[in-house]
Amino acid sequence: MRVDVITIFPEYLTPLREALLGKAIDKGLLELGVHDLRRWTYDVHKAVDDSPFGGGPGMVMKPQVWGEALDEVCAGDTPRLIVPTPAGRPFTQAMATELAQERRLVFACGRYEGIDQRVIDDAATRMPVDEVSIGDYVLVGGEVAVLTIVEAVVRLLPGVLGNPASHQQDSFSDGLLEGPSYTRPVVWRDRAVPDVLRSGNHAAIARWRRDQALERTFHRRPDLLEALPDSALDKHDRKL
Ligand code: 6GU
């Protein structure tokens, strides 16, 4: 997969070259381009923003600068454009799975009060565009959202995780939160690991984990349980 990020703070994206994502780059599974939006400014002040029509606080990012930037970064190609914004559709594990199928993603990071809407509307005539939010809170800009989205997507690419089975057990992959995990020692600060996990009874372990996931989801995310289709519950689940 190729990922390009356009931002006025390229150094904000340096964590993308660390740890798991850095390894994905080294292995050739991820190609990453980070571009400074100011490259496409055209005045001595390198202005990227201006005051909003209609008044109000904050500044809006200028369409001419973004238009040139997207024309050059997307030249001769049709990537999927992702615009992080608190006004976007919610980013979910399902969307991560969908984005992981793409050959190329381009992220347009807005700051201030956002990007002139015509940039997004114009780009949408040439490529698929998604305005995406990572949650119901407001960040200063899209950069941290890009870190979040890229990490969630790239870990799903074949060959990135050591053990491909590990994302089959992720929270959300079955619509539930993942339950607790334990490792050695068997007793730590007077707390013992649940006996069932050391029983060797694989059916009992699977049942226990399923119950823990259901219970945790019930307490922390009742909205997820509500959204679960009946077909996602087995007859043993219903006893809870
Ligand atoms: Cl994607 N951007 C910004 N600036 N704030 C956010 C967000 C995105 N998602 C939640 N808050």
From TrEMBL:
It is found in: Cytoplasm. Pfam families: tRNA_m1G_MT. InterPro entries: Alpha/beta_knot_MTases, tRNA_m1G_MeTrfase_C_sf, tRNA_m1G_MeTrfase_TrmD, tRNA_m1G_MTases_N, tRNA_MeTrfase_TRMD/TRM10. One of its GO terms (molecular function) is tRNA (guanine(37)-N1)-methyltransferase activity. It comes from the Bacteria. Gene3D superfamilies: 3.40.1280.10, tRNA(m1g37)methyltransferase, domain 2. It catalyses: guanosine(37) in tRNA + S-adenosyl-L-methionine = N(1)-methylguanosine(37) in tRNA + S-adenosyl-L-homocysteine + H(+). This is tRNA (guanine-N(1)-)-methyltransferase. The lineage of its organism: Bacteria, Bacillati, Actinomycetota, Actinomycetes, Pseudonocardiales. The gene is trmD.
